[in-house]
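Q&A log
Question type: sequence-to-structure
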Amino acid sequence: MVKNKLVKGTIILLIGGFITKIFSMVIRIILTKTVGTSGLGLYMLILPTFNLFITLSSLGLQTAISKLVSEHIKNNKKIILSIIPVVILLNLALIIILYLIAPTLSTVLLQNKETYYPLIAIGLTLPFICISGIIRGYFFGKEKMIPPTVATIIEQIVRLTLTVTIIPALMKNSITIAITGVVIINVASELASILTSFFYLPKNINISLSDIKHDKQYVKDVFSIGLPTTTSRLVGSLGYFLEPIIITFIFNKLGYTSNYITEEYAIVSGYVLPVLLLPSFFTLAISNVILPVVSSSYAKKQYSYTKIKIKQACFISLLVGVPLSIIFFLFPSQILNLMYSTNVGAQYLRISSIFFLIYYLQSPLTSVLQAIDKSKSAMNGTIYGTIIKTLLIILLPTLKLGMWSLLIATIASILVTTIHHYIVVKKCLQKHF
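Response status: OK
Response body:
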């Protein structure tokens, strides 16, 4: 029965992930053609900040709730409602912080005044993204994969519709307003996801305002899992946040023009890396399915079964990752032309695809570490990888490698983090045999 649930859940998430990725690709293609390389470069400059604040607002709640619900020990209703007041206060604080630091961030650190309004817009999206993640965590913990899958597809449909209808109109005003619109669209798409999820909640649940209250023990249980996960993601997000700041500063000092920095950064971050990350919809699906399965079996001390499921997750991830890596290596120009109607960055894509294969193991291994109560180890691996990446981004440009510096640093970070995760998982399992 458990095996059937695992297979069924994986298939559902894979189908949903594939559909979502298709929508995501179409949205990116339309967005690229609408705002151009300059607009895409502007969006890529603020994206690290966006990811950082999403990490801060979410607090690893999706993972924590998924794990607690899957263990069938706590009251699911109290798990979710106890955390809501904390989430509301946190997101209000983050919105204020973002508003206060946006002027300095845009003009001093990112050295681009056009990023100011898009940065301000990020704050509006945070509560919706956070609530959406909490609801997904509940369904993943219950091993009900259809609700979050349908909700994500609806979310993408709304995002696509608004991108097609609103962004071209905003471009008539300015690129800055258009990119601000791209950020704000997340409010509508996440709200659509939340409302869709509500249709799948048990019909016998009665919730009143009095139920939404702080419960110290439940909040502690959630944070004991969520905070190490958040810290791990926060380290990665901080590294990503610093990435365009360091690159802009170092490359300017070395004499590169602002146009070169913006355009090449857009090519690597906006074209090449999204292609390389294309299989991530598959590995993310595997990760979401494997976390409650491994968490439950490991808690019951079913170590042989746990080991089998981990091996299956890694094998299935490579089953998709290997063929796609070969395609990226053999046909980089064709892939870029198909997706973005350009072949710029083809050489970046060809060379990077060789080393990126190991990345497709990272997400399942991270979920395994979280499931076996090794979130701190997952955090350590991310710290090591982020330190390596940041140091290389600072040092490599001095060798006149151009934007290859970013790709080499990214690949090195992936190798360090994934190998670390593999070693920790292997040691943990060996203790029980």
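Response note: The chain has a mean pLDDT of 83.
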